């Protein structure tokens, strides 16, 4: 099991002492916050006189964490001058798991190999790639003994090593904010930057643009040639000064959008309250930078299946459709609710995607759940939207499109159903052709879709960008980004917020039902749900994560456990 961020014991045996990171002063160059009180880093020490090759490599590794704050000056003392000049520690960062790293040195002392249990790697642009459980790599070192008898590392790969125990203190998760293709809503891409220059790195990477997998699904106010005029963002009394080159934007609308992106990205950092921007030395006014809205949060009203009826739950009361609304088919599953609240979708017999407006009356048009006994005598009026051999549970996007897929069809389908017009679309993609789709969910911003599937029997979870035309119609899917690398086969998925997803697995051999919470562009937390959980939903944040148990009804996450919140429901769905 891998927790998202946990305190490991790696490097402990290598440390001669510890020191706290000093707090930041009133004027910081790219420093956005001081690490939390109580966070400790190893005291960086240079090589000891007469240290053998193994001690040199271990000392080098022990000095690396402090390097993110000191340009790796102490770590470079373990290298020959030539190796120090050629080594680029910022090319990548390999985050490794628990346990001391012990190099194996050959008899001559000039060559060593270092096995490393890999948790994740972070590239030079801050993109984190999670490694599967049990992943390991081997690093090679060459050493030389100088005329003074001292051993030093003469050859090594670019990049740095960092234990998970220091990762949380030294790196900050930053959401680079882009916009939906209509320029209305924030879409954040997760990157990871060292604390000491997070503001500078975030601004620099933001103007470069989104990663390739997301680029066609979002828009940005910065031109392809955009860059920082001054390669540092100075934070003074909460104001981040961003100096852009003159070619950063080519129109007034781009300037407006770019400023909104900078403000949304940088003010999310702890020590930044506002942004001061110049383009080619000319100040940019911040008056209209509120053009980017946050992604819509689902309503507090969750749709429910209660016996043969539909219902609404407001967190306190459960009300259901009256007899006059009719009864649901016994095989109805895969509940989904539109953001407008005017429509509810289900899968019937695994082959029909249907919708109903029975819940559009709201709580006032429903009856208390404890006031009904017998099932309605007539069937509920349902509109069939699509049929297929084996349809997965549907998902609404914020624009009113209803998404599903045939499990073995190699494509996703989107239907304009909730107050919008247009033709149904089939979004085929080469990466989907070999997949057997298990579940899907569209993000709250409408720019991405989460797909859980299997490939040659192996589970995989991916997020792809949704490419839309000027009218908002989905027209294509981008190449996907794999998420939840350590997750197993999933039967249901949901978005928890704009960058976090959850997936429910299948109960194995009478044990607990596995649950995974994954950051898109981050790490995965493994947990468990109720043993008979069959579905899940979330409104906003991990505390709103709710699973459905045939025996206990709906249970909400409470710490590491689950608390019953409403009985008698077999399915529950917030909008989305």
Kindly state the number of beta strands. Answer: 43
Supply the number of helical segments: 7
Helix/strand/pairing category: mainly beta
Distance between the termini: 29 Å
Strand content: 35-45%
Low-pLDDT runs: 1-39
Largest sheet: 7 strands, mixed
Helicity, as a percent range:
10-25%
Which radius of gyration do the C-alpha atoms yield? 27 Å
**Shape verdict:** globular
What is the arithmetic mean of pLDDT? 90
Structure write-up:
It is a single chain. It contains 7 helices and 43 strands. With 576 residues, it is mainly beta. Mean pLDDT is 90; it is low at 1-39. Helix 5 runs antiparallel to helix 7 (252-266). Strands 4, 5, 6, 7, 8, 9 and 10 form a 7-stranded mixed beta sheet that branches. Strands 2-14-15-16-17 form a 5-stranded mixed beta sheet, with helices on one face. Strands 24-20-19-18-43 form a 5-stranded antiparallel beta sheet, with no helix packed on it. Strand 19 and strand 20 form a beta hairpin.
Supply the key terms:
mainly beta, 576 residues, disordered N terminus, 43 strands, 5-stranded mixed beta sheet, 7 helices, single chain
